[in-house]
Amino acid sequence: xxxxxxxxxxxxxxxxxxxxxxxxxxxxxxxxxxxxxxxxxxxxxxxxxxxxxxxxxxxxxxxxxxxxxxxxxxxxxxxxxxxxxxxxxxxxxxxxxxxxxxxxxxxxxxxxxxxxxxxxxxxxxxxxxxxxxxxxxxxxxxxxxxxxxxxxxxxxxxxxxxxxxxxxxxxxxxxxxxxxxxxxxxxxxxxxxxxxxxxxxxxxxxxxxxxxxxxxxxxxxxxxxxxxxxxxxxxxxxxxxxxxxxxxxxxxxxxxxxxxxxxxxxxxxxxxxxxxxxxxxxxxxxxxxxxxxxxxxxxxxxxxxxxxxxxxxxxxxxxxxxxxxxxxxxxxxxxxxxxxxxxxxxxxxxxxxxxxxxxxxxxxxxxxxxxxxxxxxxxxxxxxxxx
Length: 387
Hints:
The chain is mainly α. 65% of the residues lie in helices and 4% in strands. The protein has 14 helices and four strands. The protein has helices at 25-46, 49-70, 81-98, 120-135, 138-141, 145-165, 169-185, 190-214, 216-226, 239-251, 260-264, 279-311, 316-340, 358-378; strands at residues 8-12, 109-110, 116-117, 382-386. Strands 1-4 form a two-stranded antiparallel ribbon. A two-stranded antiparallel ribbon has the order 2-3.
């Protein structure tokens, strides 16, 4: 007597099975290494084990989120893009209506359990999903490049205005870089790039010249944004920039090391909240040029892998989504390092996986998880039935 065959679920893929379950393991490893660097920096700056444990839990949750999202079908997100976008705008409004001013900005909302969230964190990811959905939609594929360009701007302007009103110029910077990466994949013409540059110039002029005359509070923020151009004469406004540069410079080739006596006199102790936006300066002070170079190499390897996955994606939606997510990481990495070495103004941009922060750790993990999901789909992983 023979039993009838029962359909069984089977995992089929275009390549041979591997212990990685189809994930790009290098991204998980690089994120883990950078997390460990961040925890070391946090402990050396605060000398508080409880803070390290708390941040370690967020880092672990971020890695778990990275892996979990990597197994999701990324194409299921695009039909929900419209709802994501409106939810993101509501969240962006919340700090303006209910948030408290911290360091001159209303950019945080308080969550149950004593947690807090910057709505710009999820909004960056939401914008990438929405841009991919919009620019790859059948309706926009048949219109002129100028209409596609206008649609991308119309999508980006509302969150940019809301984050500028808080005001949180680090978020404006990240959204602008993200838009550039998205438009690059969307095949802009030279004239459209010139138009984008003209719009950016007008925005910078309004920020540095017009707004300080109309809104008194913006005068101080404008001074902070321009202090990096003349740090020696900017007084207290450029204090963080000067100390960050001194911390990196005093590290020399190999840094001051972990000698307890030398660490007590380390320059980074003069930086307020050094474990956050100035964690790179701590790395430079303790481990010197070599330590900074190794950290940068880790980021370059991560970004190169993200670009490769985006270029080999199977659909235009995935290519644009990957470009937007890559733009987020590029803005954070080079924006943070740039302000630590005095090439960019201090804008409050955290360094991915190294800077202390719970919500940032979760959303950086989620962004890499979406890249992993694109990678798995390209490799042909799907659940089918054998008959």
